[in-house]
Amino acid sequence: MSEPAQVIALEEIDSTNLEARRRLEAGESAPFWVTARRQTAGRGRRGRSWDTREGNLAATLLMTTDRAPIEAAQVAFVAALAVHDLACGFVPPSLVSLKWPNDTLIAGRKASGVLVESGGLDERRIWLAVGIGVNLAHAPKDVERPATCLADHMRAPPPPPHEAMRRLAEAFETWRGLWDRVGFSAIAEAWTRRAHGLGARCQARLPNQTLEGVAEGMDEDGALRLRLDDGTLRRITAGDVFF
Ligand code: BTN
Asked: Is a pLDDT exceeding 80 seen at residue 9?
């Protein structure tokens, strides 16, 4: 197992993803985590914002890799599995599931999201900012679909962010090790066992169109297999899915 990545813990920042990238550019050596108690401009997928109030976890792992960018993006599923482990340590595992591509749901509502950003480092390597937001104590109210937080499903107080961070980093390392040793097929299989809505009808919002069909499963490269009503199979590689 490699050295644990150091954790840079901040009070407040615009976005841990942005800060991680700034620190890399300023010469910080990867891998490292950046966490913040509050984000003032937290970023979500597809240009959305992400609300991080005190008591929730906002964390970014800045890592480098010589994997090709398409393959490197699979790290988002590694992160989702780590969040699933974290959540299962505090709420009944039967309530916890993963929604394609990498949201963690508790009782069917979103409790966590992952935003991976990347860029070139040199001719051979890229950097990845694996940003993870977990609603530990608060769920945002002003969202399109009702969200939830760990606290909503616990009798005891939710874990403080530093404890959640420790567990998340440990779980991430375990799943990343599996990805390295065995390959993405092992990650895809683990993800599928925890998946929400496979076999169910869903709406897939893609960058340029919205499709409806049945979510059949995930391909070995992370694409969602969506069976349309006319029987054709579409591989979805980017977008949001709603059941
Ligand atoms: C999503 O839209 O579901 C992804 C949300 C990702 C939020 C996290 S919080 C830590 C990191 N910093 C950010 O600005 N965004 C990610």
From this structure: yes
